[in-house]
Design goal:
With 517 residues, the protein is an alpha/beta fold. Among the domains are: 189 residues, Cobalamin-binding domain (Rossmann fold), CATH 3.40.50.280; 99 residues, Transcription Regulator spoIIAA, CATH 3.30.750.210. α15 links the parallel β16 and β17. It is globular.
């Protein structure tokens, strides 16, 4: 495959605020996945916007599309020509793409093999904040926290220091940065507590701290949508969820900032997407949706917490043309949901589902998790019972309209994440997971107008390993980047991977040198 031709992509992009790729200082901003995925990331777009707001700075974007030397979207500039490359990584599976991008650019993957004139490799994003140790042999600097808080110090160091070692020494002394060459985090004889710099509620009440789309494009998961962040954190503390623990307490952006941002979007699109861990819990969500409708926008929201489904929210979504909504019951039984620290009974779920279809929405997505601690086969069967009851409510409420709706079940396997209530848990054994998946697949197939997607067990084992791994995962990741299949890797490194995934001994957790803030 030839090098990617970015001309068509550039022609279709609509910047909300025009920027120039030329500045006194320049940064390569890379996303370790395709343009389609990377430009769907509001965090990536936020960093792009903030770099261009910094005096004298510009950046160019890089993605995995194409072959050979990665070239920038803006100017077809080779990745290897930059002195600093800032990667955003939100998903552990993208670690392999990250290494492959370095390889295509002929940049040594291991930081210890880079010379004084090699590019400085920086990795931020949620994966860095969850557990940077997995990539610590490859990365020079991990910014830990919100871009608004860590980017000024990073750009200042890059602009003011004379060489890469001086940059590393300076950032190692700053809050909000993990520099593997200077921080001996895996030395269990030391107590090293590095601070993450999250965006505070006070900051969010100040102008200039609202993440929104910088460039609208039809070539993303949210084609032509202007995305607006509504809030951070979550009112719930579900044991499986990193965001609710790692992102701090629930706080929201002021309504006036959100409405002002929507006004800026009118010149480039008529579609809005409101995103957050808990979109529907913004105290003025109904007002925001209604005012967006009055301005002529078509709006949609990301997953809504079950208690936040209200007549006002549903009416506003229906009026804007949206017909789909996503809920996350996570399990089918009330008892297991309580153990997840999500005490929402099925009776409330059914009440909200009836309301959804009564308001004319026709597509419902329900997310579930299997492999939870204390989960039984009866709990898994309860997922199918919930699906059947939601289908019954759908048919009952939509029958007068003559429309048959659709319900999609997304069933994932529990990946115990750092900084969650399940961080000391192990993944359920493969044989039990196979039985549970078989039950779910057979049951869903018997429900008309209900579809199902599940997570492959092999993928779950791989993700469970790399999300909790230390620096000793470097050769495993290099094998994957070299093209060895995950199936082969799981067999060849089984003596290392399986203890981490299935029977990790209790003890000090290697990632606890990071303070959650």
């Amino acid at each position: 495959m030839p090098r990617h031709d970015w001309r068509r992509i550039r022609a279709d992009e609509r910047p909300v605020v025009p920027t120039s790729p030329h500045g006194r200082f320049s940064l390569a901003l890379a996303y370790a996945n395709s343009y389609h995925i990377g430009m769907s990331s509001l965090g990536f777009q936020r960093v792009f916007e903030l770099v261009h707001q910094a005096p004298g700075w510009a950046c160019e974007r890089f993605f995995t599309d194409g072959d050979g030397m990665p070239l920038s979207v803006e100017c077809d500039t080779p990745l290897a020509s930059f002195g600093a490359i800032a990667f955003s990584i939100s998903f552990e599976e993208d670690y392999v793409d990250f290494l492959q991008m370095l390889g295509r650019a002929k940049i040594p993957a291991r930081r210890g093999e880079r010379g004084p004139n090699e590019a400085l490799v920086i990795v931020g994003g949620s994966c860095a904040m969850i557990n940077p140790l997995t990539l610590s042999e490859f990365v020079d600097v991990f910014p830990l926290g919100a871009a608004e808080n860590v980017l000024p110090a990073l750009l200042a160091a890059l602009a003011e220091e004379s060489d890469r070692e001086a940059v590393l020494e300076r950032l190692a002394a700053e809050d909000g940065f993990y520099v593997p060459a200077h921080h001996r985090s895996e030395d269990r004889t030391r107590e090293e507590r590095l601070k993450k710099l999250e965006l505070s509620a006070e900051q969010m009440r100040q102008p200039g701290h609202l993440p929104t789309t910088a460039i609208v494009s039809p070539h993303t998961e949210f084609a032509d949508k202007f995305l607006v962040e509504m809030s951070r954190g979550c009112p719930e503390k579900c044991k499986y969820c990193w965001a609710t623990f790692g992102m701090g307490s629930f706080r929201w952006h002021p309504t006036e900032f959100i409405l002002e941002a929507i006004g800026r979007a009118r010149e480039v699109t008529d579609q809005l997407g409101f995103v957050a861990t808990a979109v529907g819990d913004h105290p003025e969500i109904e007002r925001i949706l209604l005012e967006a409708n009055d301005l002529g926008f078509r709006t949609s929201v990301s997953s809504v917490r079950i208690p936040a489904v209200t007549e006002g929210v549903l009416g506003a979504l229906k009026a804007s043309g949206d017909r789909s909504i996503t809920l996350a019951p996570e399990t089918g039984s009330d008892e297991l949901r309580v153990k997840l620290n999500k005490p929402i009974p099925n009776s409330v779920l059914y009440e909200k589902v009836r309301l959804i279809f009564r308001h004319g929405l026709t597509h419902l997505k329900l997310y579930f998790i299997i492999g939870l601690p204390e989960e039984t086969m009866d709990d898994v069967q309860a997922i199918l019972e919930v699906a059947a009851e939601c289908r019954r409510l759908m048919l009952e409420e939509l029958a007068p309209t003559g429309v048959i709706g659709h319900i999609h079940l997304g069933v994932n396997i529990l990946i115990p994440k750092p900084y969650t209530g399940y961080q000391r848990e192990t993944m359920e054994d493969e044989a039990t997971l196979r039985r549970k998946l078989k039950l779910v697949k057979k049951g869903a197939a018997a429900l008309p107008n209900v579809s199902l997607s599940t997570m492959p067990i092999r993928q779950a084992v791989w993700q469970s390993y790399i999300t909790k791994a230390g620096s000793d995962a470097a050769d495993v990741l290099e094998a994957a980047a070299a093209g060895e299949s995950i199936a082969s890797i799981l067999r060849r490194f089984a003596d290392r991977i399986e203890p981490e995934v299935f029977d990790r001994a209790p003890g000090k957790l290697r990632w606890h040198f990071l303070r959650t803030g």
